[in-house]
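It is time I had a proper look at our fold encoding. Can you supply me with one protein entry, sequence and fold together? It will help me judge whether the discrete encoding reads sensibly. Leave the record below and I will have a look:
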Amino acid sequence: MAVFSLPALVLAALGLPLSMYLPNLYVENVGIPATAAGTVFMLLRFWDVVTDPTLGVISDRFAPPFGRRRSWVVASVPILAVSVWMAFVPLPGADALYLALWLFVLYVGYTMIQIAHLAWSAELAHDAADRGRLLAWREIAVVIGIVLVLLVAAITESGVPRDMVQEVRADAVRGMALFIVILLPLTVGLAVAMVPEPRHETMPITDWRAAALAVVRNPGLARLVVSDVLYKASTAVTGTLFLWFMAARLDLARFASLALLLYFVAALIGMPVWMWITRHIGKRRAYIASVIVPALMVFPLLFLGGVTPLLPGGEMPVRLDLGFVAVADTLTPDQIAGLIGVILYGVNYGAAPYLARALCADIADADYRASGQRRTGMFYSFLTLTEKTGYAVGVGFSLIMLDIVGFETGRGASNSAEAEFALACLYVIPTVVLLIAAGIVMMNFRGPGGAAGPERPKD
């Protein structure tokens, strides 16, 4: 299970800077207007509405000798390696068109490996419990990948003066790209060499439109897809605005990368807890909890920072020291509370994605038993599509709204207290609304895996 999950480690190491660092890099360092950058990220993600289901159908239908899933995983490596480097290390004179070109290539490669690897994981499992463990291992690998790539950023930015953090951030993103380009072929090679792919019979599907329609009309999948779009949009909002929120609202730019690192360390600690919760209350209830709890945790951040502090008291010295990387400064109680809140918020990360994939795999398995048609790739293509649709909405909304509310970006930008509070509202309020809505959608979910276990079939 651990070896099979290794490619997910690299995909996560790619996904984090893609959603959190790259928009900031192109707006602040390259100089693309926030609205233009937001439009590029949003439109290209919406293009996946076409590519994701198409690749899902093709990967289900054709079985090359090397493997139905493994072939796509291997083919994605050179596409991703080249596009990651070009997107993460922009050439002089890069503009919105340059960003659009290399993001398009990157997203194609990302879709290829993501859908194939998810479908492969579902087909390796023998039952729902086995599948849940495999997906949990995959999510643990995701968090480890994020922690490792954030180490690159945190070490690069460690000890940098406050006014130089943004300049050095381009070096941090370059280091992340190097990390991904080196590890991607190594992890894929190990997984392909050491993990067998189940042999499948020739697909009995003759009418792909009817098959796709059957997937779309699955009531369990419909609720899961809507909920997942809302959840992913919420994470895209906080992810896109995080670096600005830390720098402008909390004045913690120097702590941003290290705080993110500790956020995902908290996520790594939290995953076994969420697995334990899932075993005791079932996947559906655990999923609902995994989106409602973070909504409650992020809300207090709205009132921290700014001209009028929420918490009384004077400044005090704070030092975050992991031995190999450390950041120290004198902080107010509001800043300390914000830093602690951001880090603890990470305990929830990984739970909802893991549970959504586990529920989707159960739905696909039930569909296979009922229809005799293996449509795992198609089911997962819709789930990966929700991830990208939610991301498109979240990142596009966030960057475009920065301009609308009058928040200044770019080198030398200066913002009023009102603009900084508007940033805090953009960071918190949409996130809370989207997370609560994601939980409400799943309240009446009925489908395989919704129950806490065999002893509680009513869920």
In short: Confidence is low (pLDDT under 50) at residues 201-206, 449-459.
